[in-house]
Amino acid sequence: MSAIDYHRRILADELRNEAFEKALKQAVKPGSSVSDIGAGTGYLSFLAKKFGAGECILYEAGPVLALAKKIARQSNISGLAFVAEHSATVELPTRTDVVVTETLGNFALEEHIIENWKDAQRMVKDNGVILPQELALFACPVTSDRFYKELTEPFDALKCADFSAAKIAALNAMYVRTFTKEDLLEGGKAAKQYDQLSCNEDLQSQRTADVLWKLPVSATIYGFAMWWECMVSKGNALNTSPLKPITHWEQVYLPVLEPIPLKKNEELTLQIKTDTRWETGLSARWMVKAPSGMQGLSMDHGL
Predict the structure, then answer these.
(1) How far apart are the first and last CA of the chain?
(2) SS3 for 166?
(3) How far apart are CA 132 and CA 60, in angstroms?
(4) What is the rounded CA–CA span in Å between residue 150 and residue 193?
(5) How many Cβ atoms are within 10 Å of 292's Cβ, its own excluded?
(6) Residue ranges of the chain whose pLDDT lies below 50
(7) Are residues 152 and 85 in contact, defined by beta-carbon separation less than 8 angstroms?
(8) Measuring CA to CA, which residue among 41, 224, 275, 235 is closest to residue 134?
(9) DSSP letters of 201-256?
């Protein structure tokens, strides 16, 4: 996907745009100063200016910042400061009334929302506002075999050599996929929240969470679907669940090494460990426990 197509998809997401527009309309007062972390094409800063913001500071390390400048110039939008680096590299950033960062990935943490929230905490004025405000992460067992087969059958079909090592590497990875309720345990009703984060708390980039299911029906588990709900502002949420209206974000699939058959009332446990420190990028490990045994997977074991 080209860079401009990536931004086109984001800007075409009406639910995303409406949520951030509502949040900025609530937060921005006449003359408010605004910091925009990961500004991209500048859309959020342009919205802030629409609602009466004074100076907006756009932090963007990528080449798309040049496009943001051109859009601003052609739209006659003034009062913008463009910083061609990430805010985390700025030793003494200007503190502002509002700090906004739409750095949410399909797997919510992959675009460093935790690290950007940490940065926002030092950039926002006392009694200022950080957007978005809260984030909840969800997981649901996958009972459809179609994603597992997609990853494994091509290697199983090869007969000239033993490709089992390649299959294992493929399963030790995180995938962006679109699920339907038919793919999920209890049609997705079995989803459970496994983590909760707030923009104002002491955030940790290395996180461990455990979630337990007691199977309501007999089923074979082929992995886990992951999604999130983000409270952009009070009463104003974005949700990437496959049971909710579609956004440009999809869900994430965590495979298992071997399908796990379970009987009704048997227990299934998922432990997920993530590390999103700047020096790490994104690392994820997941351990699955069932009566049949344990399976450990890690992105470090993939390619």
Answers:
(1) 20
(2) helix
(3) 18
(4) 27
(5) 12
(6) none
(7) no
(8) 235
(9) S---SEEEEEEEEE-SS-EEEEEEEEEEEEEEETTEEEE--TTS---S--EEEEEE
Q: Which amino acid is at 246?
A: I
Q: What is the pLDDT of residue 53?
A: 98
Q: Which phi-psi region, left, alpha or beta, contains residue 142 (left: φ > 0; alpha: ψ -120 to 50)?
A: beta
pLDDT for 26 equals: 97
Tell me how far apart the alpha carbons of residues 285 and 276 are, in angstroms, rounded to a whole number.
12
Q: How far apart are CA 212 and CA 215, in angstroms?
A: 10
Instruction: Return the HEC string of 174-191.
Output: CEEECCCHHHEHHHHCCC
Element (DSSP H or E) covering residue 235 = none
Burial class of residue 158 (count of CB atoms within 10 Å of its CB; 0-12, 13-18, 19+) = exposed
Beta pairing class for 80-83 and 96-100: unpaired
CA dihedral 145, 146, 151, 157 (to 10 degrees): 90
pLDDT value of residue 1 = 74
| 3: its two tokens | 């860079």
User: Helices H, strands E: what count in the chain?
Assistant: 7, 15
The residue type of 62 is: G
Helix runs in 28-93, H state only = 43-50, 64-74
User: The tokens 């937060």 sit on which residue?
Assistant: 27
Whole-number Å distance between alpha carbons of 80 and 34: 10
- Which amino acid, 70? K
Q: What is this structure's pTM?
A: 0.96
Burial class (CB in 10 A: 0-12, 13-18, 19+), 284: buried
- Output the six-digit token pair for 149: 């087969």
Indicate the DSSP class of residue 173.
S
Q: Which of 274, 279, 277 is nearest to 299 (CA)?
A: 274
Tokens of 94: 């200007």
Is the Cβ–Cβ distance between 33 and 97 less than 8 Å?
yes
Listed in sequence order, the DSSP H helices in 12-161 are: 14-27, 43-50, 64-74, 113-123, 146-156
